[in-house]
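Hi there,

I know you've been waiting on this one. I reran it after we fixed the sequence typo, so this is the corrected version. Both the input and the resulting structure follow.
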Amino acid sequence: MVEKSIFNALLGLFFSLFISQVYAQGKPYVQAVSAKFGVAEKSPLPQFLKVVVDYDDQVFVLSDRGVYFPFGGLLIPDHRYRSLAGKVPLDISIQEETGYLYYLYADRFLSNAHAGKPFGRLPEGAFDRLAVNAAGDVLLTGRGKASVFRAGRLLDLGRLPAPVQGLFVHQGMFYLHAGDRVLQVNGKDQLEELVAVPGLRAIAFREGELIAGSDAGYTVYSLRDFSQLLPWQEKLPVQAVRSLAVSGGQVWAGTSQGAFRRLSDGSFRYYASNRWLMEDEVMDMAFDSMGDAYLLTKSGLNQIRFKETTLAEKAAHFESKIRQRHIRFGFSTETRVKDPRNLGRSELVDDDNDGLWTSFYLGSMAFKHAVTGDSQSRRYAWESFEAFERLLSINQLQGFPSRTFERTGYKVSGPSKWRESPDEGWEWKGHTSSDEFVGYIFVAAVMDQLVAKTETERKRVADFIDEILMHMINNRYYFVDIDGKPTLWGRWHPEYINSYPETVVDRKLGSTTLIAGLQLGYALTGKELYREEAYRLMKEEGYLENIKIDLNRIGSTPGVIFEGHDMGDGGWNHSDDEMAFLTYWVLYHYAFSEELRAEWEWVIHNHWKIELPERNALWSLITYGTEGSIDRESVFWHLEGFAWDLVRHDVKNSHRKDLRILDQNFRGQTTDVLLHPDERSIERHNANPFVLDDGRGGTTELTGDEFLLPYWLGRYLGVIP
């Protein structure tokens, strides 16, 4: 048995190391990033018609006012060739294989390639579309007929059975999409019908395949015998396909509700809303040699760039962004977006939870300093800690932490509960809640563990938490505001905590946060009072048993009313998950004894298992740094998928046909599988990631410390190379 145990341990160690190497070797990864190119002209806008990309990866957009190209963040008229400036082509096309750009005008076609030699004189107004094969043959359609221009001669191919929606070249052959039919110019220079598809909207080609799309989805035919190779694909993000393309072997579809691509495993990536597009209706698509997508919508061009990056580079991106645009008096602050095209004009605003949100930034800088020894990150941590200290000093109350503060007359968050500060020219906000307390104990813990080096620094951290805890003890475990009353959610007294049944999470969570805080206070200050009070509450008031309540027992318990709030109704509270996991770091690392630490391990593992479907990197890493369990694959999935752009655009997914929707449930899990992070709304860790439709209308931008804390914690724990 001993030999078997040793073997299993070694096997487990080997597997763990193997998995770590797999993920280490998996870097760099590909990050999707959005860029948008509108026009400088005032309305009416040009009518954009088509987008193409040449062999130099230059992008050209056809409009009713001429050809545009992206430059300097805008789409600008292409006046580089003076002979073409001001002229409006009827169509543009890219030659097969060579990638040269061709233009079609009312009486000619031409190209600037080959020293400008490609040219063909045409009957005035006869044609409005063209395509060019590798041999230089030009297919032309217009006025219900088709022709081929070859070797200086125009060859008539005859009448068309329906209006043309598109011309294509694939493997040297010309194809036409005309009405419900796909036609080919055969070897005898004749139009030959290949397949008829009712309601045909779009076609594309991939090797020996023809891909056809309609309102019913898409299907695939063989180009050899035109047999149907794939049943109609209907379980798509959007079923009604309006355009099709192939890039890197993957099928892309444009729809009236965004675009999607099908991955090799059969899943989809969906690009919709202002996160990715100026408008959701995609009119045309093109791709460059690197696989970047250019999606044409009513207002302009939308690029989805697939950049190779690393988690370290993403962290540097967010760290720079925070320092440039998100630091307000030391707080890490969500900004109010004034101009989506110029985020530098955004405004810093106060928030009810400035302390809690800033704990993520301070924590990330503390773990970064521990990993790198970087003096700058240590400085940033102390700058933010100074903001926490001022939460105490800016008001008139002993040990009462303000929610936030701002210069007089500039507050933004809810107008109630603001008070004048003894510091002239300042206001502070009361009504402080338990989630802020969680931020305080987490911050004090990581400052003590990782940042404070000297006795003076350690005393600063100890004094901060000591003042808060003594305020709570002196006020019977309540946060008591300037009006002499407990705040609505700053309550830890047994009469409050134990008023909840065990099926309501507030009983368990309030006990957990208070005991964690008292453990921390004892470790930092040495005050026996904190240890005595913690054991009294655990033994005499049932707080230990409260903490050990199995979270699987939490469920709908309507009718538990507090201050007009039904605390047992409304489903699982994901904000409580955030509070709990930040608290677990303190609860575990500052346990009074090994016996208690073993109890806390069960508590943490119990919660972690319930949270596995949400694939949250931070929950897994805090669990790994305490109890020891981890969902390593989801850590990387979450962090690599974390959006690059953090403007909180509205996102909608509930209409998607590729999702398996679950019955309504207490957890609020809407689908059997969690959507990829860059398809969901931008939220903090206190939100339900299974919400399908959400957002803030693009009016605010998160900081990125939601990524930085798990990233640097993962580095600290050795999970992330």
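Quick highlight: The first strand starts at residue 29 and ends at 39.

Best,
R. S.
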